[in-house]
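pipeline/complex-builder :: batch 7 item 3
reading input block
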Amino acid sequence: DAGVIQSPRHEVTEMGQEVTLRCKPISGHNSLFWYRQTMMRGLELLIYFNNNVPIDDSGMPEDRFSAKMPNASFSTLKIQPSEPRDSAVYFCASSLGTWDTEAFFGQGTRLTVV
Amino acid sequence: DAKTTQPNSMESNEEEPVHLPCNHSTISGTDYIHWYRQLPSQGPEYVIHGLTSNVNNRMASLAIAEDRKSSTLILHRATLRDAAVYYCILRDVSGANSKLTFGKGITLSVRP
């Protein structure tokens, strides 16, 4: 398996533009996590899906952020409109969905909003 | 969520054992102890996890106190590649919410 695949790896966009980050989890995994990492705030959990259903979105910063998981093999994180403070590395991770298994992380998407 | 407390940083010499401590005094009976690490410019990677008994795998060992209020990640022979941020995380098994929440972690430096 190729692991968790995120795209794009790097994204530079102008303030106010819509940004869509993509994630393909490992086949067979039924839990998916989106994280954001900055120097100031560390690694923050944004949202967590189980069986394509959002279980906990308490970490989503505000209404500008939305996440979807239309099927078991694909998820998106959208920011509209983007702001400079959204600049961060965004990670996607997947696991078999229980507490007793490890989560596998993608390589991340480095987002820069200018 | 139950919280964990780790020192900010630790230094080690190459090829020597490293003991990374973690305090979790408010741990509940349904919390598993997980350790992840993040190498520079990479996503986090799983290291080990356990509930009550000590655990060993190819990467490390996990020693869990009898009262489960603390644990120690043991790297038996540190290498330069082990320099990373190590995160100690409690993962609740009760209910449907099994999220993985990271704290600040401990930064391990390895001297040649």
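note: Strands of chain B lie at 9-13, 18-23, 31-38, 45-50, 55-56, 61-64, 70-75, 84-92, 106-111.
queue -> next item
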